[in-house]
Specification:
With about 375 residues, the chain is of the alpha+beta class. Among the domains are: about 90 residues, Efflux pump adaptor protein, beta barrel domain (Elongation Factor Tu (Ef-tu), domain 3); about 50 residues, no CATH class; about 90 residues. A 6-stranded antiparallel beta barrel has the order 3-12-15-14-13-16. Strand 13 and strand 14 form a beta hairpin. The radius of gyration is 46 Å and the shape is rod-shaped. The two termini are about 65 Å apart.
Length: about 375
């Protein structure tokens, strides 16, 4: 009896389940398929686009000068700060050197004394010349003796000698003064180029010694240096156009290859390419991170509008329209973004039709008012 009851119960349960299934099938078959309107579809085709070889590098100044002291002394004043633009010859740093300053003052005094001695020698020579001319007339008239005339002549020659010595003394004093002033000029550290102060390596009160870098000044021309894989040897040449991206500045700019370094690094297996940006880029400075994209040969790629791609969590997909007009979501693998389009790596084939506009109106499993055979990429359903 118990076994019979169990069998009857199983039969009744299966009957109920079968009835529910039939009802579900009946409801499904009787419901209307939703119609998707207000969308635009297009047939997927290959587009020939240039492949890009991308690499990252660093912005570097064409000219980078390490400004150092030429004399020893204490830093008295720093006239610039990092990031400030300077011109060639501008005073950047003043160095206090009491010894040099004292020698410069002493040399100046020596020049003043030498000038006074020369003035006295000039006056003495003028007087001796006048006396000599007067005694020569008297001597010709037999009014003075030969001895007296010889004495006046000797005094004239002596005055000439003193004048020449005073003149040479002044020249020596000026030479020493010029040397002292040259050393004094070294206490004013000047910019060797037009550019920007990139780095300050010393503070006021610090001791500056000859050869010790005080500041780094970068010129106003910059290059982007990037490492390129050795497999690209011979494919990148000077003069090739490059697309540069500097993320920190939010800048995209055109560039041109200026130098290709032939030597390959045996460790990284790369060689260096230097790119000159086209035009002036505001805020550009050495050390910034930069990306470079080199155009290669054209290849066929499946490209779809970026607006045709829908997100489902971490996945990406497109709505595909089959030959009967039914819309379904298909997940795809995406590649590089190219302008307002994105590359499809897998999941979609050429000739298939997708929704390119109005994806927010699409209902999975719905039918479009449009059927296959309409003009590619131009039909809009109502």
């Amino acid at each position: 009896m118990k076994r019979l009851a169990v069998v009857v119960g199983l039969v009744l349960g299966l009957s109920v389940l079968a009835g529910c299934a039939d009802k579900a099938r009946s409801d499904k078959g009787g419901g209307a398929t939703p119609v998707v309107e207000g969308i635009e579809t297009a047939e997927v085709e290959y587009s020939y686009v240039k492949d890009l070889y991308e690499t990252a590098g660093t912005v570097r100044a064409v000219r980078r000068s390490s400004v150092s002291a030429r004399v020893m002394g204490v830093v008295r004043t720093i006239h610039v700060k990092e990031g400030q633009r300077v011109r060639k010859g501008d005073v950047l740093v003043e160095i206090s050197s009491p010894d040099i300053e004292a020698k410069a003052r002493a040399a100046g005094k020596a020049v003043e004394e030498a000038e006074k001695v020369l003035d006295m020698a000039i006056e003495e020579k003028r007087l001796a010349d006048a006396t000599f001319e007067r005694f020569r007339g008297l001597y010709d008239g037999k009014a003075v003796s030969g001895q007296e005339f010889d004495e006046v002549k000797a005094r004239k020659e002596l005055a000439l000698l003193r004048y020449e010595q005073a003149l040479k003394g002044l020249e020596r004093a000026k030479a020493m003064s010029d040397e002292a002033l040259s050393f004094l000029e070294y206490t004013f550290v000047r910019s060797p180029i037009d550019g920007t102060v990139a780095q300050k390596r010393i503070d006021v009160g610090s001791m500056a010694t000859p050869g010790t870098p005080l500041l780094i000044v970068e010129g106003r021309e910059y290059l982007v240096e990037v490492p390129v894989d050795e497999s690209m040897t011979g494919r990148i040449r000077e003069g090739v156009d490059v697309l540069l991206s500097i993320d920190s500045l939010g800048v995209k700019a055109d560039g041109k290859v200026s130098t290709v370094v032939r030597q390959v690094d045996p460790v990284t297996r790369t060689f260096t390419v230097k790119i000159r940006p086209g035009g002036e880029i505001e805020g550009l400075r050495g050390g910034l991170f930069a990306r470079a994209a080199f155009p290669m040969a054209e290849r066929p790629r499946l490209l779809v509008p970026a607006g045709a791609v829908v997100k489902r969590g971490q996945l990406r997909g497109v709505y595909v329209v089959d030959g009967d007009g039914m819309v379904s979501l298909r997940f795809v693998s995406l590649g590089r973004v190219r302008g307002d389009k994105v590359e499809i790596l897998s999941g979609l084939a050429t000739g298939e039709r997708i929704v390119v506009s109005g994806t927010e109106r699409v209902v999975g499993g719905g039918l479009t008012a449009q059927r296959q055979g309409r003009p590619l990429g131009s039909a809009v359903t109502d």
